[in-house]
Every structure is written in C-alpha cells, then in structure tokens.
Amino acid sequence: MENFLNSFVNKFGNLSSIQTLIFMVFAILAFILKDSIKETFLLIKWPKWSFLKRKEKGQDIKVLKSHDIFPTLERVKREASFLRFFSHGKYDEAKSRMSADFVKFKCDVCSDKFSTFLDNDFSKLSSDELKQLILSSLWNMHEIYIDKIRNHWLNKGINKEDVGYVIELFEVFRHGVVLGFQHRTEAIFSCEHYDTHFSKILACYNIYAFGIDLLPKDLQDTFEAINGKFANIEYIDNSRS
Hints:
By secondary structure, this protein is an all-alpha fold. It has 10 helices and 2 strands. The chain folds into 2 domains: 2-43; 53-240, no CATH class. α6 runs antiparallel to α7 (127-155).
C-alpha cells in the first residue's frame, strides 16, 4: 500500500501520502455519487440565472400598451363597419347601421379598458389576485359596452324589447369565444411556464386579440339571423340623438 501511495505522490507532485489518500477517497466518492451530484448541481439557482429572473420580473407591464390587441381592435372596427345586410333581397339600412354602431362601441370600450388595465399597480398582487382582476375586468368591460349600445339603440328609436332581442342574439353567437377567454385565462395561470405577471398578461392579451379577430363573423351571424326584423324601422340620424 505504501508503494502504491508513493507512486501517486510521484505523479501528483509534492503531495504527502495522507494528502494523496484523501484525494483518492474524494475521487472515489465523486464517482459513486456522480448522479446525485449532477442533480444537485442542476437544482442550484446560480447567480447568472437569478439575475435574469430579476430582470424579467422588473419588466414594465405598461409596454404592453403597444400590444397588437390595440391595432387589432381598430382594424376590426373598420372591417365590421363596412358590413352590409339585406332583408328580403333589399339593402337593410337600419340593420347595417345598428351593426356598425354596435362594433364601434364594443371596440372603443375594449380598447380603453385594456389600456387602463395596464396602469394598475401589480407589484403587490399574488398570481390568484391578478387572475381575478383580469377576469373581473373582462366582465366589467362587457357590461359597459352592452349598456352603451343599449342606450344608443333606444335613443335611435328601437324599442326596448327589440334591443334586448338583438343583444341576446349576439350573446348566443359570442358565447363560445367569451367562454374560451375564461378557460384560456385560467389555463395560463395554472401553467408554470408563465411565471411572472408580465408573461401572464402578455399571454392573455394574445388570446384576447385572437378572439377579437372573430368579431366580424359573429356580428354578421347575429344580424343576418334577424331576418328583416328592423327593415321598416326609421333609424334616427346621429345628429338628432
């Protein structure tokens, strides 16, 4: 054994026999425990990654005011305003103007609320609190634009029952999209890959922008299903409302 240790001493320089023995013990242990050491190494939160994490958490959520959802709302509003509807083979002016007014109120309210939402102080919110804030904001903007369009149509000479009928019909066609917003929002907040408030809000806005792109189709389905209900209604001119 002494000769064996001496041969190591010759190879490793001026190490004593005891130092060489200690080195050998550590080498053998490292080989035996290499898998455990590897797992431990991977679990360590190294300073470099911690710095990147702090940088990501510090992202300013207000930069999302340049998100694609805002030009999408403006584009959809313009596209839907050109929809033309017919009843019994003839152009239906009242129905066409009702559709244009509807999409204008919806897009304007949503654009304003999606923007002002980003002005909140999110720093003290937990993930669950942020999720509830997002969902409640969605329902709130929905109620606001429905109230605005209801009052607008009433001022245009549409009776209360017919206004309620059109709104309910639109809700039926839009139900799948609205429900999808809620389900996808909950899925985003349950996914570990979205680990900051910024990434969660960004993912939600991406989903909402996709749903907004479907608005012209849902609007067209709604007003085509009316079947001339308002063909003979005189839709009061904007200057008189």
